[in-house]
Design brief:
Blueprint (H helix, E strand, L loop, with lengths): L6 H14 L22 H11 L3 E5 L2 H14 L11 E4 L2 H9 L14 E6 L3 E3 L4 E5 L7 H5 L2 E7 L3 E2 L2 H12 L7 E4 L4 E2 L7 E2 L6 E7 L2
Length: 219
């Protein structure tokens, strides 16, 4: 029988043996269970806390009437309208969001050819992930990624039924929603983009909107 003559050979033999044989210590590991503790507060509160930590703007609305009032107030306070200089204005492409803006008396453009001139973009979303304060949008939405990418200010209209705790649950919800026609792109938005690449000075909205607003409607 061949005698092992070096420490290296002994170690390599043990490694090969370990690779061939499954370790009994890992046989019963549960890879499917959640690794995070369950939410102890309402998801609305958790999302609001996490989203605002990331410099997002959160507005809670008890119903769509209050949503319309708050949208109108925001537009008026910031002097946003659809007749701004250089052709920049308010853009919206999704039917549900367009209906809400019309009810709110807010003028907007839906011409995708002029989207590069957008100042304020209004869109819906797929889901909100409370634990990370994230907004998930997909290519299946009419707005896709184009509107959030070009807008200086991005307004997201969401409903409490779209709130889940983790991104994993949100992705599962999207998969269940679209079945075999899964979106080609899903974007996870967690507050305005930030960079300190230039002279170590923190710049917000460097690669997208300067500010992101989430209007959460109850029900």
């Amino acid at each position: 029988m061949h005698q092992e003559t070096t420490t290296k050979e002994k170690i390599l033999k043990k490694v090969r043996k370990a690779l061939i044989q499954k370790s009994s210590s890992t046989a019963n590991i549960d890879f499917d269970s959640d690794i995070y503790q369950k939410a102890e507060e309402p998801l609305e509160i958790i999302f609001a806390q996490q989203f605002t930590k990331l410099n997002g703007k959160f507005i809670y609305c008890e119903n769509e009437k209050e949503l319309s009032e708050n949208l109108s107030m925001l537009m008026e306070e910031n002097k946003w309208d659809n007749h701004e200089k250089n052709g920049e204005g308010i853009f919206c492409f999704e039917n549900k969001a367009k209906e809400i803006l019309k009810k709110s008396g807010i003028d907007f453009s839906e011409n995708e050819k002029d989207v590069r001139h957008v100042n304020v973009g209004v869109s819906l979303c797929e889901f909100l992930a409370a634990r990370t304060g994230s907004v998930l949008v997909s290519s299946k939405q009419t707005s896709g990624r184009i509107l959030p990418a070009f807008a200086n200010y991005h307004i997201v209209i969401a409903y409490s039924s779209q709130l889940v705790y983790t991104i994993k649950e949100a992705l599962g919800g999207i998969k269940n929603k679209y079945k075999n026609d899964f979106p080609s792109m899903i974007v996870n938005i967690s507050g305005p983009s930030r960079t300190a690449d230039i002279e170590k000075t923190l710049v917000q909205g460097a690669h997208g909107p300067k500010e992101i607003y989430v209007f959460l409607v109850d029900g």
